[in-house]
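Internal QA ticket QA-208
Title: Verify multi-chain structure generation after dependency bump
Assignee: T.L.

Test input:
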Amino acid sequence: MSAPIDFYFDFSSPYGYFASHRIDAIAERHGRAVNWRPYLMGAVMKITGARPIPERPLIAAYGRRDMERTARHLGVPWQMPEPFPVATVAACRAYYWVLDRDPARAKRLASVLYAAYFAEGHNIGEAEVVITLATAAGIERAALEAALQDPAVKQRLRVETDAAIARGVFGSPFFIVDGEPFWGNDRLAEVDEWLRAGGW
Amino acid sequence: MSAPIDFYFDFSSPYGYFASHRIDAIAERHGRAVNWRPYLMGAVMKITGARPIPERPLIAAYGRRDMERTARHLGVPWQMPEPFPVATVAACRAYYWVLDRDPARAKRLASVLYAAYFAEGHNIGEAEVVITLATAAGIERAALEAALQDPAVKQRLRVETDAAIARGVFGSPFFIVDGEPFWGNDRLAEVDEWLRAGGW
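Actual output:
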């Protein structure tokens, strides 16, 4: 089996959410696994100077329309979250803590968190909401509560985010396939083609 | 025949250049014409606060790589221009002046200008270069030189750019299909599908 695909995303990213519904199936067609790697886009934005979509004139209106259109097109549940965006530190820390114990459960948790935020009206920017959702997904509450305050877990997320930036990751979703970077949900068809062709 | 597709672009935009090789064929498949509408992205950037790709940390390196990869993928001639980006006031004015006299020739001129900048090493930011290229394309030099200084021609470009912004256009390429906006060369497959399906 060839190397896994790295799927970088922010839990507060609409296009990351859309891509989360697609990347595993694309990878599977080509015999690839996918490493889901949430990180903090806020750290990147400090470097790039980019601002969240709702704060960008012209782009904000287009973004809102495009998100609804993309959700309809993909058949993915969608409800524009409010507030948007939110800080996803707790969501990311929970993810990596679960990942180190049970990778399959971590991916399920990521999907639960995404659906909660982009389809079910839950504010995953709040640690308590993350904990409640994780508990419903079978994760032990007390252990998770402790983990979210654990300096080692906090450091784990910092290292992941720094490593992503060091690899040139700056968006969500962002894919790295055999060292080749692809930015955006709208590049998934190209990722699929790249995997089939072995590059060009 | 249904309404034409509006194709907005900046003459200094790599992805506008790539899209210029594709949009007419896509439109033709669906019995549509295309209005090519160059405008000044600089005017939009004053509103959105966006900066040119080479000035954006992380995105600059990705952009350079992605442009080369996209050119290879599409089989489109490519040579990263230097300087980049350039002001395209003269190119746009020449385009609209020719458009009002001979629309087919205007589209050919646009393709000549794009190829000159992105494949042949000519700096179309200089009015003299635009004039020389236009002359080689059969446009009368003296008349074009006069047109580039004509207040009515200058005003025509201002009106086009203002009208684009008023319609919500902010990128290059940017397409409007029956009122529906699509941003980016990587959305052309979606434009194609939208035309086939009549929306979703």
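Spot checks passed. The beta strands of chain A are 5-9, 34-38, 174-177, 180-183.
Status: verified.
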